[in-house]
Design goal:
Belongs to the RecA family. RadA subfamily. This is DNA repair protein RadA. InterPro entries: AAA+_ATPase, DNA_repair_RadA, P-loop_NTPase, RecA_ATP-bd, Ribosomal_Su5_D2-typ_SF, Ribsml_uS5_D2-typ_fold_subgr, Rubredoxin_2. 26% of the residues lie in helices and 26% in strands. It is of the alpha/beta class. The strands form 6 sheets. Strands 8-7-9-10-6-11-12-13-14 form a 9-stranded mixed sheet, sandwiched between helices. It has a 4-stranded mixed sheet with strand order 15-16-18-17. Strands 19-22-24-23 form a 4-stranded mixed sheet. The chain is globular. The N and C termini lie far apart (80 Å).
Length: 475
């Protein structure tokens, strides 16, 4: 029998081992995850034991028990995929003061109209939560409130109240006496989250955990926290704006990247059913340096305006500043412009931003970003009523994006009349599945250059092959 291998310290995130303690893991670079591991024996052969329930054919499993139940907040239901599933564990993360507690208290009050809800707070006193509930009108007889920071006390409240929905605000403030470490540490967060997930499954109780974020916007605590839960939601928003967005980054019961829009005001938080138009400025006359695109957030097309400002500078290193856009993608688009379009912006400061505080990561905004920078550099406004869609490649080609028809239909609904899209966008929404005949048709389109057609009555669509054709068409 081989001797046991001894390791002094082990990373709780990735399993990396070291002979001495370090504050940062040498493999995954996570802070505070290296803990004493002790002796690790060889792999043991597991013996058969009692089972909780016998295995049955999958067709005999009753799926009615996991149907989603509405939270009473339509925008939150949209992100969750229809509502909260009994036994599901949801993690809602966001910056301090962005409105997480307000949103969950409002959802808890709506749910408490029909079912029992337990709201456990570890960050505030019960009186503070009651004051917020009075302000937003969230006082319900079946909404129970407790202020605790001990896991055992939380479990006792659950056993006594037997809620259908449990809200824990927040998971980093709770600790367990069964393990070492301070609340919020890796060991404590793992222990608390694991026990709450087990409790949720045993009682078929939907559970929502509030999570903290680090200074770079990622969820605080061990990575295993995101694996333990069923749904991970990110609460986003600018402190200087009332607009808040909840984005699903993991969802076992619905689509990911779905977005819910909310208006945070002094009397609470209200869902915005139609956010189209919130991210587009209304100018009496066309303004240089602006271009509108249509992004897809989950299943919802949202028109968004991109703005650019280009000015000469004598500084040795011109500034490249972006707000609401991926800085690396902005740098790539600017490099393509300089190389493929001979744009003289190498000695200019370039500032780019989105309107309304929306954050755009969709590659389909590349063309609109390029056109806004060209418009700002030449101080010449683009035609009124224009939207631009397309991903820009390093060779200057325009690549097709998904759901072009839905994007254009939303733009038409808001009054836009013209669009520039990549060649073949209206022919086939799935370029990878095109037949040889359709590919020959696309080659023919490229040989002919830009093609203009009517998409909807009064809406003109121009298909172009590359960024040069797009600029030539607008001149």
């Amino acid at each position: 029998m081989s001797k046991a291998t001894k390791t002094a310290y082990r990373c709780g995130e990735c399993g990396w081992t070291t002979v001495k303690w370090v504050g940062r893991c040498g493999e995954c670079q996570a802070w505070g995850t290296v803990e004493e591991a002790g002796a690790r024996q060889g792999v043991h052969v597991a013996k058969a034991g009692p089972v909780s329930a016998p295995a049955v054919p999958i067709g005999e499993v009753k799926a009615e028990q996991v149907h989603a139940r509405s939270t009473g907040v339509p925008e939150l239901d949209r992100v969750l995929g229809g509502g909260l599933v009994p036994g599901a564990v949801v993690l809602l993360a966001g910056e301090p003061g962005i409105g997480k507690s307000t949103l969950l208290l409002d959802a808890a009050a709506h749910t408490a109209k029909d079912e029992t809800v337990l709201y456990v707070t570890g960050e505030e006193s019960a009186a503070q939560v009651r004051m917020r509930a009075d302000r937003i009108g969230a006082v319900q007889d079946r909404l129970y409130l407790a202020a605790e920071t001990d896991l055992a006390a939380l479990v006792a409240h659950v056993e006594k109240v037997r809620p259908r929905l449990l809200v824990v605000d927040s998971v980093q403030t709770f600790g367990s006496a069964e393990v070492s470490g301070v609340p919020g540490g890796v060991t404590q967060v793992r222990e608390v989250a694991g026990n709450l997930a087990r409790l949720a499954k045993e009682h078929a109780m939907a559970t929502v955990l509030v999570g903290h974020v680090t200074k770079d916007g990622t969820i605080a605590g061990p990575r295993v926290l995101e694996h333990l839960v069923d749904v991970v939601l990110q609460f986003e928003g600018d402190r200087n704006s009332r607009l808040r967005m909840v984005r699903a980054v993991k969802n076992r019961f619905g689509p990911i990247e779905e977005v819910g829009c909310f208006d945070l005001h002094e009397k609470g938080i209200t869902g915005i059913a139609d956010p189209s138009g919130l991210f587009v400025s209304r100018h009496a006359e066309p303004v240089a340096g602006t271009c509108v695109t249509v992004t897809i957030e989950g299943t919802r097309p949202i028109p968004a305006e991109l703005q650019a400002l280009v000015g000469p500078t004598e500084a040795p290193q011109p500034r490249r500043t972006s707000s609401g856009l991926d800085s690396y993608r902005v740098a790539m688009v600017l490099a393509v412009m300089e190389r493929r379009l001979n744009a003289k912006i190498g000695k200019c400061d370039v500032f780019t931003a989105t309107v309304g505080g929306i954050r755009l990561t969709d590659p389909a905004v590349d063309l609109a970003l390029m056109l806004s920078v060209v418009s700002a550099a030449g101080d010449k406004a683009l035609p009124n009523g224009l939207v631009a869609l397309g991903e820009v490649g390093l060779a200057g080609e325009l690549r097709q994006v998904r759901d072009v028809r839905r994007r254009l239909a939303e733009a038409s609904r808001l009054g836009f009349t013209r669009a520039i899209v990549p060649a073949g966008s209206l022919e086939d929404e799935s370029p990878k599945l095109q037949s040889p005949s359709s590919r020959r048709h696309l080659v023919a389109l490229r040989d002919r250059g830009p093609r203009t057609s009517a998409f909807l009555p009064g809406f003109e669509v121009t298909e172009v092959e590359n960024v040069w054709d797009a600029l030539t068409h607008l001149r």
